[in-house]
């Protein structure tokens, strides 16, 4: 029952998100707004109920599975991918590597920059 | 929405969805077992092997993707609630986040802009059509978000779904090696980079490395989904003026 309550809560937030996005003409997808609203709720509430933690970790621990049906959709695009395989594969591969490298380096640099200056003032945390 | 009759519902439930759903779960189960057998070798990523198995099976039996998706949609549907569920790890990591909010915000926004800018720019330089460029633009965001954006900016949502999965796989397979070469040791930096570049598939991989890397990757994926939805349509407009075809 706990698990069911958690899933129900997730669906209620998703549905509310979908409705609000359409009503207000927002440029973001409904589930993303649902996530933001749930996050705000948890912040106000001050804790995550067990049912919700249980349902969310069940969903998130099998996250890769959820991408499989979309991945199989590749078979409907074989023609397109064959026609433009070079720009698709190179742009996808290089851009992913560039993004990963740049983000990791920026995060490392800015963390050192800001957190060091904070911990120098505030004593030694971590 | 038209109300289906009871008989229609029965026909719908009894025929193909069961098959599509079952083979998805069986293929993933086998792929996951293979992945564990290879000691979590990133090249044996369960998404890659299960997608390959399913495509081969569908081609061999002459089953169309739309028939398969009758069942596959039940799994696909869960991407929505899973996106909402990201609020929970986000909340649990919030104390860490509060300390790091400025580095996280800077890395996240740069990462999202670099991801979209470099994919559109590279595809354009390499002679890809406008449809391909737009389908690639949101590729680093999680599938439901990326598909929505792709539709909005003139890409093909279903192609974007595939590119999102390929991006995630590329990131999950290469990520840990790249971080080793770059000597990035901080789990927070690795997690943020993984989540920004390779969304849920990268996050699944990050959780296998450490729970902290996973939580930060999930956090980055959730926040970058939000940032991508807000920034990419605008960025694409800018690029249009800046790098004309």
Describe the structure.
The complex is a heterodimer of chains A (126) and B (245). In chain A, 83% of the residues lie in helices and 0% in strands. Chain A is extended. Chain A has two domains: 1-66, no CATH class; 74-126. Chain A is an all-alpha fold. The model of chain A is unreliable at 121-126 (pLDDT under 50). In chain A, helix 1 (2-24) packs across helix 2 (30-45) and helix 1 (2-24) crosses helix 3. With 245 residues, chain B is mostly helical. Chain B has two domains: 6-77, no CATH class; 83-242, no CATH class. In chain B, 83% of the residues lie in helices and 0% in strands. Chain B contains twelve helices and no strands. Chain B has helices spanning 6-14, 16-37, 46-61, 65-77, 79-85, 87-92, 94-125, 130-136, 143-153, 157-182, 187-209, 211-242. In chain B, helix 9 (143-153) runs parallel beside helix 12. The longest helix of chain B has 32 residues, at 94-125. The radius of gyration of chain B is 19 Å and the shape is globular. Chain B starts with 5 loop residues before the first helix and ends with a helix. The model of chain B has no long low-confidence stretch (mean pLDDT 86). At the A-B interface, helix 1, helix 2, helix 3, helix 4 and helix 5 of A face helix 2, helix 3, helix 4, helix 5 and helix 6 of B.
């Amino acid at each position: 029952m706990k698990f069911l309550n958690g899933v129900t809560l997730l669906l209620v937030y998703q549905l509310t998100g979908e409705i609000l996005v359409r009503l207000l003409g927002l440029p973001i997808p409904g589930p993303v707004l649902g996530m933001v609203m749930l996050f705000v709720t948890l912040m106000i509430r001050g804790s995550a109920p067990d049912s919700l933690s249980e349902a969310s970790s069940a969903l998130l621990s099998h996250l890769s599975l959820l991408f499989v049906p979309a991945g199989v959709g590749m078979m409907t695009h074989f023609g397109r991918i064959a026609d433009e395989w070079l720009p698709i594969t190179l742009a996808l591969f290089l851009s992913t590597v560039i993004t990963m490298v740049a983000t990791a380096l920026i995060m490392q640099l800015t963390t050192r920059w800001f957190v060091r200056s904070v911990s120098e003032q505030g004593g030694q945390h971590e | 929405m038209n109300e289906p009759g009871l008989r229609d519902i029965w026909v719908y439930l009894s025929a193909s969805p069961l098959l599509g759903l079952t083979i998805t779960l069986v293929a993933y189960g086998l792929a996951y077992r293979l992945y564990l057998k290879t000691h979590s070798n990133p090249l044996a990523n369960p998404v890659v092997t299960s997608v390959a198995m399913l495509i081969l099976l569908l081609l061999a039996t002459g089953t169309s993707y739309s028939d398969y998706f009758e069942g596959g949609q039940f799994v696909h549907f869960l991407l929505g609630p899973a996106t909402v569920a990201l609020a929970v790890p986000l909340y649990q990591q919030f104390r860490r986040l509060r300390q790091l909010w400025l580095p996280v915000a800077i890395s996240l926004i740069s990462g999202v802009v670099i991801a979209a800018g470099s994919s559109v720019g590279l595809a354009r330089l390499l002679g890809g059509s406008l449809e391909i460029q737009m389908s690639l633009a949101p590729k680093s965001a999680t599938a439901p978000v990326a598909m929505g954006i792709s539709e909005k900016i003139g890409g093909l949502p279903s192609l974007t779904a595939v590119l999102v999965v390929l991006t995630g796989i590329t990131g999950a397979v290469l990520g840990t090696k790249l971080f080793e070469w770059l000597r990035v040791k901080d789990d927070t930096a690795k997690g943020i980079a993984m989540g920004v570049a390779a969304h849920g598939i990268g996050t699944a991989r990050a959780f296998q490395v450490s729970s902290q890397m996973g939580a930060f990757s999930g956090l980055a994926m959730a926040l970058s989904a939000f940032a991508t939805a807000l920034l990419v349509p605008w960025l694409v407009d800018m690029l249009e003026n800046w790098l004309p075809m």
